[in-house]
Design brief:
By secondary structure, the chain is of the alpha/beta class. It has 9 helices and 4 strands. A 4-stranded parallel β-sheet has the order 2-1-3-4, with helices on both faces. The termini are far apart.
């Protein structure tokens, strides 16, 4: 609990430039926008296996909504180095890694020199297993970054209750920030879509209510069409034909000119042929 309290203090009080949790949350979102849809949590300590399992549950349950989010996966290294490690290095470029690095192991073993150097490893005599482990980690990170796989590193000073609590709070706070920014982005997108719909509706209403301008030729075509369609009809019937044509011009769903509406295929008797303007007698 003391470690979690310290993690909370760091997350809430530090500026962004010094705030590891906020930076982790921000860069994850940036990588997602760049097409990195899979995050792989890597540990080089067997005791961190179930921390990885907890991390997958945290981010999987929190982010896996609305067909969005980063897919959380994990590997135990160096156990998975020649299976998943190969895919990370040379497979699809849709992933990034977060490496948990324990700086001081809880237990360590010094490598002894063998009387007969059958495996050729006596050059490691006097080194400890943490040296071997860190060498494998640094070499793997170098290979993966050379393969264009972005890498985070989360440094854990020691394996104890304090730093475990701090680690838990680090991931939980970052996850909460990510979830909050997702909600805010969704609300903003919905508000923008609503404003766009309202603007489109206002524009359509303005178009429908605005008077339709017509040139002399257009007016002649309108008069000729009314005569052709309803010349034998009462005045009201002739007005109705004219109203249909003008409403279509204003609707946005038909051509925006009288001639365009009149000559549209299959709409009026004149469609497909050109109207003859009346001959004026001198």
């Amino acid at each position: 609990m003391d470690g979690a309290a310290e993690g909370r203090k760091l997350a809430l009080e530090q500026d962004f430039a010094e705030n590891d949790a906020l930076q982790y949350a921000a860069v994850r979102n940036i990588l997602l926008r760049k097409g990195k849809a899979v995050e792989i949590l890597c540990n080089y300590e067997p005791s961190l296996h179930y921390v990885s399992e907890w991390w997958k549950q945290l981010f999987g349950e929190s982010e896996g909504k609305d067909q969005k989010g980063i897919f959380p996966a994990s590997v135990d290294l160096t156990t998975d180095l020649h299976s998943m490690g190969q895919f990370i290095q040379d497979g699809s470029r849709i992933m990034f890694e977060t490496v948990m690095n324990v700086e001081t192991p809880k237990h360590n073993i010094t490598i002894q020199e063998e009387p007969v150097d059958l495996d050729g490893l006596n050059y490691l005599a006097g080194k400890d297993m943490d040296f071997v482990n860190k060498s494998a980690m640094n070499g793997t990170i170098l290979a993966h970054t050379d393969g264009q796989v972005p890498n985070f590193m989360v440094k854990i000073p020691e394996q104890n209750e304090f730093y475990l609590g701090e680690l838990f709070y680090f991931f939980e706070f970052a996850c909460g920030v990510i979830h909050l920014t997702t909600i805010i982005a969704k609300q903003k997108a919905e508000e923008e879509a609503k404003r766009a719909q309202e603007a489109a509706a206002q524009a359509q209403a303005a178009t429908q209510n605005a008077p339709a301008a017509a040139s002399y030729d257009e007016t002649t075509i309108l008069a000729a069409t009314i005569q052709l369609e309803a010349g034998n009809e009462p005045y009201e019937g002739q007005v109705a034909v004219g109203a249909v044509i003008m409403n279509r011009v204003r609707s946005g769903g038909y051509p925006n000119s009288i001639s365009g509406v009149v000559y549209q295929a299959g709409q009026f008797s004149v469609s497909g042929r050109e109207l003859q303007q009346p001959q004026h007698q001198e």
